[in-house]
Amino acid sequence: MSGRTKKRIVGKISWGPRKSHLKENGASSNKMHPSVYHALVVIFLEFFAWGLLTAPMIDVLNETFPNHTFLMNGLIQGVKGMLSFLAAPLIGALSDVWGRKPFLLLTVSFTCAPIPLMKLSPMWYFTMISLSGIFAVTFSVVFAYVADITTEEDRSQAYGLVSATFAASLVTSPAIGAYLGHMYSDNFVVWLATAIAVLDILFILVFIPESLPEKVRPSSWGSPISWEKVDPFSSLRKMSHDYLILLLCITVFLSYLPEAGEYSCFFVYLRLIMLFTEEEVAVFIAVVGVLSVIAQTVILALLMKYLGHKKSIVFGLLFETVQLACFGFGSQDWIMWTGGAVAAMSSITYPAISAFVSAHAEADQQGVAQGVVTGIRGLCNGLGPALFGFIFYLFHVDLNETTNVDTSKVKTLNASASHTHKDSIIPGPPFAFGTVLVIIAMLVAINIPDSPHPKKTGVSKAALQLHQSIEQGLRSDKEDVQPLMAVSEEEVL
Q: Which among 188, 178, 201 has a CA at the least distance from the CA of 52?
């Protein structure tokens, strides 16, 4: 590809769709049209605000639930994830009728609503976090927004920009939050995060143009939405129709279940069990974030080019196994840092799986295949945190057993309990359990056919038969396939 062509594509992705693409969808080129940059600003501001609260949130969590910190954290995040999984198809279906902008406003508003409650009322803060899962699907709406304004060949690059922006927002914000908390107070950080969240809401109200053209919407707002279209479990039932997708879904479930659980509690684990300082946790997040951006862009592209999709998936799972083993069995700071560096490499697993699905699914079945895999991932977002919290509780990884003590005594008891857990054979039982799950996922991934697409040369007879069964399964029930494709447009990748 020439340098001139590359420049044209980057410009198209950055600033929005071509005029011809707008006309095809019934949009006027005379209006200010939406661009990927609009989506990037929304994502950056929302997660930058939450990133500022990393250190204060850990302290509030420990002070509110001193006896069972990890169990309650897992339940809170688990309820949020499960509600998000159940609500995402409905919100996506409604956004196909009413447009993306109203639901960007709705999801950002409700996701950020708990922020000011952190210091006002911690119990209401955690309650609102759980309930906000009903609308905590900003990514789904943002991906739909991007899909509206980009062509098919450029969509993966645009999604990459959104993912990189999300990582960038979390690279700097925890360190800034920890620094401002020391310079001023945690209350100052909370109100700063609140102000940024309000700024994000105002940006959506004033500057975000609607991306969904009138031409592609239903004829009226009262158009019925079928239950199949909003049923979150409909995508899971598609697995029985497709052996290849079944293998991929098992791989995603076994690998993303521990990953989702890890995301929900790992920074709490570093702070309260490994006794990292707030500054060390912030630096850890920044380093891992930078390495993850590099891994998901440069390294992933090289692996796809020289190893192919399947080997890239196995490569990512191998690093995830090492990462979880470090966190599960390690008790030294340097092992935690090693695990963090390896975690950045393991972040390529899901993008590699999505690329595999995109490469081998038929053109008119892209949404179906991606939606099935994404449904499994959404389910893990609900089950993973709850599972990790329960395993911590099962192995008695509690920080103290006394509630009638002041804050200084709580911290002293926590430090003593932390040393006890660090000296045990398995300091992090959930991470050790996750290691076993990912090893099984790797064995499943190895059995995935290298080239299931029959159009490619050198495909074995077994692979050809597999592809035929896949195609037959995906096309066997048109009534089921069509609604799922509509849902998956919101949640691809």
A: 178
